[in-house]
Structure formats: structure tokens, C-alpha cells
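#dry-run=false #mode=assembly
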Amino acid sequence: MVELSGNLLYASFILYLIGTFFFGGAIRDKKGALEKKQNKWAVIAIGLTILGFVAQLGYFITRWVASGHAPVSNLFEFTTFFGMMLVAAFILIYFIYKTPALGLFALPIALLIIAYASMFPREISPLIPALQSDWLHIHVTTAATGQAVLSISFVAAILYLVKSVDQTRRSKKTAWLEVIMFAMVATIGFVIITSTFSAIDYKANFKWVNKYDEEAVFEYHLPALIGPHEGELMTEGKMEPFVKMPAIIDANKANTVVWSLFSGLILYVLIRLLFRKRVAAIFKPLVKNVNLDLVDEISYRSILIGFPIFTLGALIFAMIWAQIAWTRFWGWDPKEVWALITWLFYAAFLHLRLSKGWQGEKSAWLAVVGFAIIMFNLIVVNLILAGLHSYA
Amino acid sequence: MKEVVNCVCGHVNPHGTILCESCGRVLDETQKDSKMIDMRYEGSARRSQTYNKSIIDKIWNFFSSVKVGVSLIVILLIASSVGTIFPQEQYIPPTELPEVFYEKEYGFSGKLYYLLGFHNLYSSWWYLICIAMLGTSLLIASIDRVVPLYRSLKKQKVSRHDGFLKKQRIFGITKTDQQDIEFAELKKILESRRYKIKEENGNLLAEKGRFARWGPYVNHAGLIIVLIAGMLRFLPGMYVDEVLWLREGETKGIPGTDGRYALKNNQFKVEIYDKKNKEDQTFNAAIDKVGTIVKNYQADVTLYEKEGNTLPGEEAKFKKVKDHSIKVNNPLKHDHYALYQVDFKLDELSEMSFNLMNKNTKETFGMITISLDDPKTMYKLKDGYSVELLSYFPDFEFDENQEPVTKSPIPNNPAFIFNMKTPDKPEGEVSFVAIQQTLEPLGENTYKMAFAGVDTRNVTALTVRKDLTLWIFFLGGAIFMIGVIQGAYWNHRRIWIQRKDGEIWLAGHTNKNWHGLKRDISMTLEGTNIDEPEDQLEPKNLGELEK
Amino acid sequence: MDKKQRRLIMRTSILVLLGAALVFSLYANFTKEKVAAVQKGEMARDFVLTDMDGNTHKLSDYKGQGVFLNFWGTWCKPCEYEMPYMDKQYQKYKDQGVQILAVNVGESNYSVKKFVEKHYLTFPIMIDKNKQVQTAYKIDPLPVTFLIDKNGKIIDKLTGSLSEESIQKHMERIKP
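#status=ok
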């Protein structure tokens, strides 16, 4: 069952990947870009996406059966579920607006998220007492669904910005757009580097002195560019670090971050050299048939759909469960605070849009910031900020 | 300042009105030249904009502004994120002093964090003031908008001014000589699409989902209720938060219940996932990797209630209320109180046993068992042998004068001074006995107290909680959800259809989701002879070139 | 009343209400720890405890006398320091209508007895075995002393170790 589950996830990944290319084909055809009539490419593309979603749903159900609890209990499971709901939200929006261009950006982002998820331990882990509640399923799935729908607004915003930002001259806008592109490239870099070194089973142990002046051991799974405080390599024949960190910094995590940025930078420079264009400019011709006004509406609409779901899952259900498991419904735990921050941000977005008339490009940049906050929740809050929710 | 604005249609509008409440004619000069009109709040006069005289009006108008509201949200958002950089004081280990902890753990930035008071950010005065200001803004901005909006939606007329129609985003003109037939047909279709139809002078207004417009005000009301609930929590008696440490076998009064309830801990246990259990074998890989994974923390308790009125300290009669197994996610609930499993201590010492032994011959003369909660002064053994307990230190350490003292009354590290009386040493021999340590302060002894075993028990820590404000929070949350769904999932759509000579004018407006409105209109017009209206924001209508 | 005036009154009252709510919240937030504890000025909660000699002491029976109500533990150094001073003052004031009641926070008879013997204490010492009295008085750090006047009102709450001088001063305060 566990094996079947893994294969289904793998199949869905491949299907999304192929689906992306078909969406690419769909928008090259002028006919397909218009919303009313879909061309053949688009029909195949959305068909593949749905098939992929069904496969991933199969992964989810079989893993649930195998483990006896909804597979949303660790970082791998949560992140893949988030990716799955992102695809689901895309399918929903696709059937409302029939815009293949959205798929061209939504599927790669879902792929990146699922790939990122796979870098974390994938064993089926049992539930600790705090997680043994039906509210685990209810709270986590609703919160992830809300975040996924909100993320669609980012996908639409990227589409908007790629089309609307003037690439003929350098500006702040092109620079920020490149930052977004770089973040995605760096994620690819992280995935490539991590899976390469895990394939060759790289392990290097370091003896180091922690902030309490005690000796400790770090196991590195990537060659150490950055070593721990007074670190001493204990595994023979492995790389010595270039610099050593002070004791209060987790050198192992810092090393992973540096590797991701570094490999991302190499990839990014390669792409720039190859195309002799900004990355966003490479995509620009693909979106020439996109109706900006429609994309803006998709972005806004997905926030309107996602905001209530997010509130329900990440705040209300979360509070009900916290009252049962942790004795109080609100305790200013970092994850709770970041759920509140996400909520406040989208509330501000809605007010700016409704009352200040921030539409179009301004609204698109805001959607990008919103997604950055969601990603901060997923990555930084889970792995770095200490708290009750910590997966680290 | 003019108090009222008269429209040519005869309607008298309050000062500050942009569009006549009745016919929709553009009253605000600055709006007359724009291609489309601003339909927010129906162009009604927001009260805050009307009067700006006294200081009260100025404060009022400040809080009524959306700009101020959004700024407050952003300030709160940034402040909240600062509080997550390092853990808040409540999450640092209870044994640590905050003034030491932050610097030790996070260096200079930690020290700064502590000095700026960010370790208690969410209960700081400035954070509370920000929340209060946001609450004020929620209330005032809502009052200021909902009243005029309600008025203008209620007063709206079917026949609208030409300019009003022309400047709608969706607008189209169809030439026809069969107005009556078309109108009857349209009316039928729109009704079947669940539009409410109003007719006047042969013109039509089809409207649907007006209640979506109240969504924002409903959800703001919910939020205000939540804030009120937060405030009520400060009232005495509304909120109890206590901790109860309870040893196995022990019965104690439950703090916060004023002596009314007592709890007995029958058993406390910790279970872990075990590869030997069949149902746990799915998790073998994870168990191998992580090691010990806890499956269950459970305190089996009995709840008692006092009968009659007694004073604290007075012997009282208790009657059993119920048995319960308190687990994480399964608190014991009774009479607004809830008891939660939050912490524990395994294997606390409860009894220690020693043999009185001759050091040379290893011959023993009987065993004494000391209850660490209630030790006795004298332990008699067989004829002529006895052990006197001279001193007892439940949590022993040496103080600065190298005197044995106890750090606490909890038997974490018990130590004893015995006087062993035997027939050959009737005065007794003094021995100091601690865990893995024996001292003979008054010279070499013949006898010793040989360690013979311990008995332990587990201790559970329970949080005692009463929160009478919960239902108010829940009510506020529910109202917020209703409001936010009402505002987000429904749209207020209006279609005006008017006859001019030989023409049918059609205009449409929605507060959001224009795609849906356009689809509604095009499905309505399908099969009629009326042309589909244009979206005046479409690029081709704006005259923009595709890049 | 015209419309404008009515509006002004409504706005003023809403703002005043909100302002009051803010002041209340801030005040309550900063006094929440103090509110939780028993404060001076309150009436002392009545209780009944039995001392080491088996005599029962009910606080309300001491109406008309001052009561020096002390909570302590044998492991608590500051408690230990003040005990001999308390005993000296007890000798002086017991005939002047001041009673000392020293409540141990629930240790074993053995420990308390040894402690009493060590310091030759003569005032009534009682053990609050099931911790009901300390819960009623919300005792946290030790030692704590409540000065209770002849009417049963707590006139002061003293935390930390007391010197002989200050004990004498406090005895004067509750002397009837």
C-alpha cells in the first residue's frame, strides 16, 4: 500500500509535468488563448492535470489507509497536500475562466512545491498525542486549502506582471520580477542539490561547540561550505568548510540555504547567458494573448474564494483545536501569529482593493507579497522559528 | 457648507453625495468628465466627509478612514511578526530568567529584544492600543458607511439618468421597434435566473444578491464581538488558569474552584509506539529513525465534589462525581471547568528501604522502609536494634557552609542522617546516607544502612481552565464567518434596461466578479434580439493597442 | 434638538465608550497579576487548622485580636531567618492581644517537628496538609505574612524575610 501510494505521487508529478507542456502548446495557438473556445491542446492539458490530480488523490487516500491518519502530519505530507490543493484550486478556476495561460504558471509552481516536499523525510510517522484528534484532519486540510486558493492569486499575478511590466528597459519592476524568478530557480537548485547528494548518500559528521559550550555533533548531508562553531570534521575524505559560524547560528541549516542560493545563482546565470534576456522576458511572448483585466479578476476572485476558507481553517478551526489540545485557543505561538499575519495581510489587500481602488498592477504586487508570506509560513516558520507547531 | 444637494429629478441628497440617491445623476463635478462613475458606496455621502468641525468630528473622521484602518492593520502585522523572531517569555523554559536567557541564547540581538520588551510584545501597552484603535476603526468606519449605503440602496429608482447608464462599465444600445415584446421576454428570462424585477415607467431594474453588500458590516460586527470577548476576560471570575501537580494516589483540591472540587490521581502512564505491537508496525521506519515516539499521556483520575460548606483546612466530606482518563486532546470537563494533561514527571521517589547491616559480617538486622512524604522519627527493628532518623533532606545539597540542606520539599534527591542503635553500640552510630553516598561524620562505624530498594510513583501536571468568555468568542467568530462568506461568495448584480425612442438601453453593474455578470447577461440575451452590451474596460474599448 | 447636535452627541458617546473600554483593558492588563493575589484591604478568609499540639485554630475566633499570619516552609531560608525573631516578638505581644499563626505549606510532620525543635518555636504552628488554606490565600513565593487587624481585615501583605525590628513595628500596627 505504501509503495502504491508512492508510485501514485510519482505518476501525478509526471502528469503535471507533461500537462505543463500542453498548456504551453495551448497558448501558442491564438485560438486557445481566447476564453470561450478551448483548442485541442488545452483540452488535453486540463485532462492531464485532472488525471494527475486524481493520481495524487489516490496517493493521499492510500497513504491515509496505510497510516491510519490523514497524511498531513509532517512537513512532507503537508507540503504535498498543499501542492495537491493548489492543483485543485487551479482546476476550479480553470473551469470558471477557461484560461490555459494560468496552467502554464500554476502547474510548475505546484511541481516545485511537491519537489520541495520530497526533500523531507518521507517515512510514515505515527501521531504524537497532541496530534491525535479529528481536528488534525479538519484544521490542517482546510488551512492548506485556503492557502492553496490564495496562492492561485499569486499565479494570476505573475501572469499579469510578466505581461504588463515593460521589459524594454530596466526598472525597479523588472528587478523585483527577476527576484521572484530567482526564488523559483533557487528552489529548483535546492531540489537538484539535495537529491543529488542524497542519491550518493553524502554524510559528513562535525564535532562542534554549541552556545552552552557543550560539545555536539552535526550530521551534514551536503558538503560543508559553512561549518559549525569550532567545527571539526570527523568523517574522512569529506569537504572542509570555508567559513565557520558563531555558536548561535544553526550552521547546518545555513549551509543548506547557502547551497540553494549558490546553485540557484549558477542556474540563473546560465539561463541569462543562454537567452540573453531577463527570465521574465523569456516568458513574455507566451502571455501576449492574455487579457490583463481578466487575469486581474482571477487574482482578486481567488482571494475572495480563499480568504473565508483560510479564516475558517487557519484561525477558527485552529482555535477550536488549540482549546482542546493546548488548553487555550490562542497562545501567540509563532505559527498562530503568522496565520494572523497572513489573515491581516489579505484583509488589508481586500480593503485596499475595495475602497482605495488598488487594481491591476498594484493588486498583482500585493498578491505576490501575500504568497511570499504563505511561503514564509511553509518554510521559515516550520523550520526555523521555534514553536509548538515546529516540524524541525 | 451646503447641507443638502438638490438633484434635477427633485430628490434632496445629503451633502457629499456623488450620485443622486434616487436617479443616479452625477452630482459631483469632478466625476462628470470621467468615462466611468465611481459606484463605491453607491456614490452616497459618507457621513465622515460631511462634517468636519469639532474635535469629536475630527477624531471620528480619522477612525472612519479606510486609509487609517489599513495603516493600523499593517502596523499590527509588522509588530506581530517582530514578536516571532525569538520566543515569547511564556515559551522560554520555566527555570530560566528572561534577563539572562535571551542574551545567553541569542547574543546581543537577544539582549536588545529583551530590553525593548519584545519578549512580552503581545501584552505590551502599545500593542493593546493598536488593537483597540483597529477595533475603533472597525466600528466607526462601519457605522459611517452602512447607514448611507442602506439608504441609497433602499431609495434607488428604476429609471436612471442617461449619464448614469452610459458611464456604467457594462453598457449597450440596441435599436428595435418591438420594445414591448423584448421587454416581456427579458423579464421572463431574468426572473427565471432569480433576479428580482422592479418596473417603473416601462423601465426595468433586475437585481440579485443585494444582501452580499451587508457582508463586510456583518463580519466587522463579528470582529467587534471577538474584541469585546477579549476584554470581558479581564473581568474577575470569567477566566481561570491554574496548574495542578498531582502524584499517583494523591487527592488534592482543584485550584481555582475555591475548594469545591478535589481530584484524585489513580494512575498516570506514558505509552510509546512499539515495533512489537502489530498495529504500530506501519511506523517501523520512523521509529528506527527517530527513536522513541510517544503514543499516549494519560492520567486516570476521579473527580470529587465537596458536600456542604466547610472552611479551608476543615475536614470535609467529598462525594465522587466521575472517573475520567485525561489525555492530550481529551480533557476532563465539568461545570465550566476543564482539566488538561500538560506535563508529567515519571518515577518520583516515594519510599526508600534500607537494611541495617554489619559492615564486616554483612549480617543484616532487619529492613526499614521510609515514606518520603511522611517519615517517622524512630524505626524499631528486632530486639535491641532500632534506627533513629535524625535528619531528613528531601532535595539534598550542601550549602555554602558545607551544611546539608534541602532545596525543596520534593524528594528529588533524598538524604538522611541515621542513628543506628544496636546492642553493642547502645549510644548509636551516626551515618549520613544520600543516593550513592555514605558519610560517617563521627568516626568509623561498625554498622551501615545498606540500600535495599525504592518505590516510585508518577506525577501528572494538569492545567485547570475555566473560560466563561468562550461562547462569546465563538459567537463573534461565527458571525464573522457568515459575514465574510456573505460578502465573498455572493455578488450584488444589477441590470438596468430602459426604453428610449426606438432603442433599448442596457447597463449592468456588479460589486465584483464582472465575469459572472457578463456571463449572466449573455445567457439572458441569448435568443433575444438584443445585442450583447460592451465591457467598457475591455482593451479594445479603451482603444489600447495589444503589445 | 437638531440633527447636527444629535449626531455630535452620538459620536461623543460612542468615542467615550470606546475610550473607557481601552482604559479598562490597559488597566486590567497591567494589574492582572495583582488582582489574582489576595490584596491588602480585603477581609481575611476564615480557615480552620490544627497545630502541632493538637489544638484547633479558627481565624474568626481571634476577632478582637491582631493576627500575624505567616506562611512558610522548612526548606525556605528566608522563612528560617525570621522565625526566631517572630518567636521573640510573640513572647512580648501574646499578652497584648496579638496572635501569631504560622502555616506550613504542607510538609511532613517529621520535617516540621524537627524544624520546631531546632528553633525552639513556641507560637502555634499548623500544617496545611491538603493546601486548602494556601490556595484560598493564593500563596506563591514564600515567606508571606498577612497582617490582620482586630476586625479581621488584612491591613498589609508582606513578602520576603522580616527583620526583628520590622516584625515589632508590624506587631504594633495590629495591636488592638
